[in-house]
Write a structure and sequence with these properties.
The protein is α+β, with helices and mostly antiparallel strands and 550 residues long. It folds into two domains: 162 residues, no CATH class; 326 residues, no CATH class. Helices cover 34% and strands 22% of the residues. The chain has 15 helices and 20 strands. Strands 5, 6, 7, 8, 12, 13, 17 and 18 form an eight-stranded antiparallel β-sheet that branches. Strand 9 and strand 10 form a beta hairpin. Helix 1 runs parallel beside helix 12 and helix 10 packs across helix 11. The longest helix has 35 residues. The radius of gyration is 36 Å and the shape is elongated. It starts with 17 loop residues before the first strand and ends with a helix. 37% of the residues are buried.
Length: 550
């Protein structure tokens, strides 16, 4: 499900409205209500379940006692009826009391039939208690509600205008910061697979060439889609430390200091160059780039991306051995004895993004019913998904996080970082986790942009009429202020109670089974124990005509 640390405003979702709750097992018919209402309903339904079980016991005990009483002639039913019969009938609503009253009588333990009854009552009591514990939670499915269409804002990401791009960037940053903040969630670590760094070679200088693989899946239920929970995005990627991107180091004198400026050819292309140096900042920094789409599992499913790390000349009190943070002797005004060497490798990566639905595969460019039979996403929702997921999410995460992208930068203190504890693997692992969160949150994030954002960047979720486009609002948002109730359970529990109550009424008043109601007499048990009286005998010896004729 969506992982978000942001609170949804009450204006971003609709309550008291039936909708499809996204579940891995399929859409569930549901309705969202405030927490207080859900708590009250849960208490009420617990009581209803208790009353329904009493009616069930009335039916079971009534039929059992009726069959037991039919064994004897009507004139002998009192004298031969076990004293336990009235006890069982009158204690049917309190099995615990029935067990105590029956079990505390010493002579009852000498009767095998009574012991079997006690075991049966105990099983029924455990079952009733278990039902009271297990059934009410089935009422609540989660904390989701259908999104309010008026709260959806999807910024136009297709505009190449510099001013629009500049306005879009700060609008996008908060959602990636939220994603990064969620990486501390232990559950996220189990959703994402990042392999250990394995050495696949070494340079002529003896430096290690490392490879790190990663993968994760996101389903329609994770996205919050009300329909098509089986739709799945399968992400598979791999990164390698690439020394061939490095071109040269150019020393620059600045404030009487010699600063090394490393130059890189992006993706090995001399036309696209990038530099890394202390001019980027005192702590390690990283720059993220996208390359071309190539053949993957599908012809255009594989996207290339890369990272140039700017860690050269950064000071550390501890030595570093990782390719990105390999240190040599250094000097610093703070006394740090180590400094990161020049010519750190870039990270060359590929990522395969394949969407699957009921055995068919496609790319983000074609989430149609033609490519994925049975999938009926609206064209406008497909367009929004393409805008957001058209390039590797991990690249977007790193690009927007800037100085916070690298885990190593969080260890920096007073312009010194800890090279010993820093590694390209740990940096990449955190980025992959943030990418997963940002991916599953793509729809719920559409409600979390600041008010008035459409004045700076056009809202593509709204049509020319000013209304939200068809199908764009087919998702849910999550909030701790609400509860999602199963419509099926809401209807079934009261219906079962009413049904059992009606069956009990008919059984006790309109069928021969009603003879057992004679056991309701408050002094009947004492009379039976004394061998029966004329009054009691009359009651049980003159059953309804329908009984005598059987």
């Amino acid at each position: 499900m969506v992982v978000s640390t942001a609170n949804q405003l009450s204006s971003t979702y609709n309550l008291w409205q039936r909708f499809k709750f996204p579940s891995e097992n399929g859409p569930r018919d549901a309705v969202a209500v405030p927490n207080l209402v859900a708590d009250q309903l849960n208490s009420a339904y617990t009581l209803i379940i208790d009353m329904a079980l009493v009616q069930l016991l009335t039916i079971l005990f009534g039929i059992s006692l009726y069959l037991y009483m039919r064994r004897y002639d009507p004139r002998d039913r009192v004298t031969k009826l076990s004293p336990l019969a009235p006890t069982i009938w009158n204690k049917r609503s309190d099995l615990a009391d029935l067990i105590l009253e029956t079990g505390t009588t010493k002579e009852n333990w000498m009767k095998p039939n009574v012991v079997l009854l006690l075991l049966l009552f105990l099983v029924l009591w455990v079952g009733i208690k278990a039902t009271g514990v297990l059934v009410p939670p089935l009422l609540t499915l989660g904390t989701a509600a259908p999104v309010n269409p008026d709260a959806i804002y999807s910024p136009d990401r297709t505009n190449d205008n510099d001013a629009s791009s500049a306005a879009l960037f700060p609008l996008e940053v908060p959602r990636f910061i939220r994603a990064l903040g969620s990486t501390v969630n232990e559950e996220i670590r189990h959703k994402v697979n990042v392999s250990d760094a394995k050495q696949v070679g070494q340079t002529s200088d003896g430096e290690k060439i490392l490879q790190i693989d990663y993968s994760y899946n996101a389903t329609g239920a994770d996205f919050g889609l009300q329909k098509f929970p089986e739709l799945t995005l399968n992400v598979l990627g791999s990164c390698t430390t690439n020394y061939s991107w490095f071109n040269q180091t150019v020393p620059v004198v600045y404030n009487d200091q010699i600063i090394a400026v490393d130059w890189y050819n992006l993706f090995g292309n001399t036309t696209y160059q990038w530099s890394a140096s202390l001019f980027d900042g005192r702590e390690p920094m990283a720059s993220f780039f996208t390359g071309n789409y190539t053949q993957g599992i599908l012809p255009t499913s594989n996207a290339t991306w890369g990272v140039v790390v700017s860690s050269v000349n950064r000071s550390s009190f501890s030595p570093g051995t990782d390719p990105w943070y390999l240190t040599g002797p250094g000097t610093s005004d703070t006394g740090a004895a180590y400094s990161v060497l020049t010519a750190r490798p870039a990270l060359s990566c590929w990522e395969d993004n394949v969407w699957s639905y009921k055995g068919h595969n496609s790319t983000i460019d074609d989430l149609t019913s033609t490519a994925l039979p049975g999938l009926e996403l609206s064209d406008d929702l497909q367009s929004i998904l393409l805008d957001i997921l058209g390039s590797p999410m991990i690249q977007s995460v790193g690009q927007h996080l800037q100085s916070s992208a690298l885990l190593s930068s969080t260890t920096a203190s007073n312009q010194i970082f800890d090279a010993k504890s820093s590694s390209v693997h740990d940096d990449l692992e955190r980025l992959v986790q943030a990418a997963y969160v940002a991916t599953v949150n793509i729809l719920t994030d559409l409600t979390l942009y600041p008010v008035g954002a459409s004045r700076d960047v056009r809202n593509v979720a709204v049509g020319a009429s000013g209304q939200t486009k068809d199908g764009v609002a087919d998702f849910v948002v999550w909030s701790s202020e609400i509860k999602t109730l199963s419509t099926l359970v809401v209807i079934v529990i009261p219906s079962v109670f009413v049904g059992l109550w009606l069956i009990a009424i008919v059984l006790m008043y309109y069928t021969p089974v009603g003879i057992v109601t004679a056991l309701d007499s408050s002094d009947l048990q004492g009379k039976l124990a004394a061998g029966g009286s004329h009054e009691t005998t009359t009651v049980l010896a003159n059953p309804p005509r329908s009984v005598e004729n059987q």
